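Quick start: read one record
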Amino acid sequence: MPQTSATEQRGFIVRDAHRSDSEAINHLCVKAYAEFRPVIGEPNWKRLRETLSSASSLSNTGELIVAEDASGVIGVVLYIPPHDKSGSPKSAWLQTLAVSPLHRGRGIGRGLTRECIERARRDGAESIGLTTAEMMTVARPMYERLGFTKEADLGQRFGVSHARYVWRLSQ
């Protein structure tokens, strides 16, 4: 069940996304990832932009969480609760973290990531995982500072190397 209350952090709040946020989420994701267009090349950017422009539909696979200030939605992340039907360790997932380029440096990405970690704990997850790309030179160190460790290289996606990171919550 999604968290219903908003939490305030350093001039912004973190809350569950509403349907009315869909357009802002889609626009934000495209803007946030546009800096990688030259790195991944035009054909890959077209595919990625198409995916990002419908990021709000990710609410069908998990809990979309937004950061918001007086200017509107300034960050978004998808939290996927653990689904342990096989008897294997329960792992939650964090996906598609995006922060408005105009609002970076305020701890928004960190706040959204911490919210996912807290939800994973709430849901009894043994770990929380994410994938990130080598081009994510700000996000990867942030994840590592928070306690995530690289678990595996995943090969190429959109023309760049990706890796899976995990934080064992049971430690």
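Strands lie at 7-9, 12-16, 63-69, 72-80, 91-99, 127-133, 149-157, 160-168.
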